[in-house]
Amino acid sequence: MKLKLKTKKALIKRINVSATRLKRGSACKRHNLRRRSTNMKRQTRDLLDVHVSHERAIARWAPYSRLRRMKSKAASSYSAREII
């Protein structure tokens, strides 16, 4: 009997998959916003790209997602555009 792998649910809730790359939210947006500048709050509003060096680990933590199926490409290249 083959054992199934569990998906890291916290990761799936935090990562968005776009057509070409992985996206994540910005940090420092939950509390103590009075002391933060308007410029900083505005810059952290959008989603950011996940760094290329983290993509293989993310694919490993989400075994049944689209990311995992592209694992063979990830092993040969670190380019985000080629992985996704």
Automatic annotation (TrEMBL):
Pfam families found in the cross-reference section: Ribosomal_L35p
Gene Ontology MF annotations: structural constituent of ribosome
Gene3D superfamilies: 4.10.410.60
Superkingdom to which the source organism belongs: Bacteria
GO annotation terms (biological process): translation
Keyword annotations from UniProtKB, A to Z: Ribonucleoprotein, Ribosomal protein
GO cellular component: ribonucleoprotein complex; ribosome
Transmembrane segments: none
Stated family: Belongs to the bacterial ribosomal protein bL35 family.
Protein's name in the database: 50S ribosomal protein L35
